[in-house]
Amino acid sequence: MFLAIVGIIVFVISTILKRSAQPGARFSNIVKIAGIGMIAIGLLTAMFKVIQPGKVGVQVLFGKVQGNVLESGLHIVNPLVDITDFNVQTQNYTMSATHSEGEVQGDDAIRVLSSDGLEVTIDLSVLYKVDAVKAPFILQNIGMDYVDKIVRTVSRTAIRDNAVAYTAVDLYSTKRQEFQEKINHTIAVSFAKNGLMVQQILIRNISLPASVRASIESKIQAEQDAQKMQFVLQKERQEADRKRVEAQGIADYQKILSTGLSDKQLQYESIKAQKDIALSPNTKIIIMGNSKTPVMLSDK
């Protein structure tokens, strides 16, 4: 469009030259042709607009925002309109205590008070994108600095408003997922009213006061010790049960032997054993004494 404006200026100059009596008047036609050419080229180039992938274009004509959105690709537009590009890809806004991680240099973590009056430091990442259809609304009502006006402000406020319902220990441990879901809902509702869409809310870190951390670590250690003791007791009970079963088995065996074998049966079994020994090729002499049990002699 700049080239077309320059062409108009050149065309006006050629008209002035043609009407003047100056020696350069003979070049007025050449200047006029050059001016017309520049106007034509300027208008043609201004009519064609390429929107890059991942972006949309919002048209503004004489200060009025147009409702139709230009998607990525080649478009023929009014050469008089100004086009503002909006990024509609997923964007990340991080607020962190680590100096090099967040969008703001330095410690940008969110400090909140829990329900028990303790200060908790939270690192947060917000994944969001611009709703392409509502890009004209954003340009008209919020402006291109929507990240500072909406993303940052709404996210920090949602964290503070929801954190007061939880104790510091709950935020750090058992209620962390519930807390994240609540702030996700709060931020999503507010973003939707302002033409933005939440992709995901990520609580990256929750830091507690040193005294609270020490208390939690002590509690965790005590719980681990108790679990270890429960394991030892269970093992001892199992060992006692095993010994009890073993003792009962020995007692039952002895009872069977004492009640099931008579003296005559024992004598009969002894005679059978002596017979087998006598028939063995290794046995040479059997000495029968006064005792009921013979003495066997062998050559080995």
UniProtKB/TrEMBL annotation:
Transmembrane parts of this sequence: 31-51
Q: Give the location in the cell.
A: Membrane
Question: What's the chief localization of this chain?
Answer: membrane
What's its membrane topology?
Single-pass membrane protein
Identify the residues that the record assigns to the Band domain, covering every copy: 46-220
Q: Which UniProt keyword terms apply here?
A: Membrane, Transmembrane, Transmembrane helix
Question: What protein is this chain from?
Answer: Prohibitin family protein
Native organism taxonomy: Bacteria, Pseudomonadati, Bacteroidota, Sphingobacteriia, Sphingobacteriales
